Amino acid sequence: MILAGDVGGTKTLLGLFEADPVRPRPIVARSFGTLDYETLEAMIAAFLSGASVDASTIGVTCIGAAGPVIDNAAELTAVPWRVDGARISRATGAARVVVINDLQAMAQAVPALQESELHVLQRGSPVPGGNMAVIAAGTGLGEALIHHVDGRYVPAASEGGHADFAARTEREIAVVRDLTKRYGRADVEHVVSGRGLINVHRVTHAGGCAAAVDLEDPHAAAAITAAAFDRRCPGCVEALDLFVEAYGAQAGNLALRSVATGGVFIGGGIAPKILPALTSGAFMRAFRAKPPLENLLASMPVHVILNDNAGLLGAAVFAASLR
Ligand SMILES: [Zn+2]
Fold it and tell me: 280 C-alpha to center of ligand 1: Å?
C-alpha cells in the first residue's frame, strides 16, 4: 500500500493507494484544511486512524509539497509549515517517506491522465517523445518541466512562479509599478494566482468596484471571477481579462523554456473554475504571441487538467515507481 499527500497553501489531500506501475488505484482519500492541524505528522496520524490503517503496512509514502525541496524536506512558501520526510517517518512509523515538489508530483501524473480528465485548449501536433510542461495557478503559481531523456520522461521541479513577471502591455506595466511599490518586486505569482487576481483588481479599480468585492475576504478571487462572468463590474471584467492573458503568456514562456512539443498542461484549482474564460481565445492568443516562434507554439498541444486530485495521484505514481 502507498500513502500519498499533496500539501498546498490552502488544502492538503491525503490518500491511500494500491500500487500499480501505470496508475495506482485509490483506496481512500480525504481533503483537509492545511492549517487545521499543527503539523503534517498530526494530520497523517488522524487520517490513518480514521481509515483504520496501521502505518507499518505502508510501503512507500510520497508527499508533494508547495515549496522548494532540499534534503527530503520543504519549507512551504504560503504557510508556516515544514514538510520533513525523516520527521514524518519518525512520528508516524511509515518506513520510507519521500518529499517532492507539488508540481513535480503533478507532472508525475500527466502520463497517467485519461482523455476525460483533460480539456483541450489547443490540439496542436504532439511530437512523440517531445518534452512536456505543467503550470498550475491556485493559492500560488507552480511550474514543472517534463523532459524526455534517454527514452523516458523525467519530471523536474522549478520555482518558476517566483521568476520576474514580464509585462507586455501598458496595462501590465501599470500592474508592475503597483506590485513593485507594494512588494519591492513583481514576480509572476503576484499576478498569476488567486492572490494575483486580487492584486490586478487593485489596478483596474481606480473608480471603485461596482460589484463591491471585499478584497480582504478569503473568497475575494472567486467573487471577482463571478462579478466578471456576470459582467456586474467593468473593473472586474478587466481584471479577469488581464489575469487570463498573463496566465496564457506565462504558459507560453514555460513552453519556450522547456520546448514542450509533447504538450503543455494547465493544472491547479483556478483553471477548471474559469474554463469559459480560458476557452474564449485570449489565453491561447497570449500563449502563441511570441514571434518569431508563433508556429512552434501553435504546434504544441495545450490541455487543462480537470482532475483536481492530479497532484495526489502524481505523488502516488512516484511512490509506486520507487517500489
Ligand atoms: Zn469590480
Answer: 20
Judged by average pLDDT, the poorest of 75-89, 98-112, 217-231, 265-279 is 75-89
Q: Provide the pLDDT for residue 22.
A: 85
Instruction: Say what the pTM is.
Output: 0.95
**Could you tell me the distance, in angstroms and rounded to a whole number, from the CA of residue 272 to the centre of ligand 1?**
22
Give the Å distance between the CA of 277 and the centre of ligand 1.
17
CA of 180 to the centre of ligand 1 (A): 22
Please give the average per-residue pLDDT across 222-233, as a whole number: 98
Q: 43 with 87, same domain?
A: yes
The x, y and z cell numbers of residue 113, run together, are 491522465
HSE, side-chain direction, 13 A CA sphere, residue 140:
23
Q: Can you tell me whether residue 264 is helix, strand or coil?
A: strand
pLDDT-derived band at 177, boundaries 50, 70, 90: very high
Q: What is the pLDDT of residue 39?
A: 92
Domain that holds residue 77: 2-108+309-321
Å from CA of 172 to ligand 1 middle: 18
- What's the CATH number where 246 sits? 3.40.367.20
Residue 83, pLDDT above cutoff 80: yes
Q: Give residue 86 CA to ligand 1 midpoint distance, Å.
A: 47
Q: Residue 114: what are its φ and ψ, rounded to 5°? A: -95, 165
Ligand 1 center from residue 223 Cα (angstroms):
9
Q: In whole angstroms, what separates CA 258 from the centre of its chain?
A: 17
CATH number for position 11: 3.30.420.40
- Kindly state the DSSP code that residue 34 receives in the 8-state scheme: G
Ligand 1 centroid to 230 CA: how many Å? Answer: 11
Residues 135 and 250 occupy one common structural domain: yes
| Ligand 1 mean position, distance from CA 142 (Å) | 27
Distance CA 158, CA 145 (A): 7
171 with 269, same domain: the answer is: yes
CA of 31 to the centre of ligand 1 (A): 31
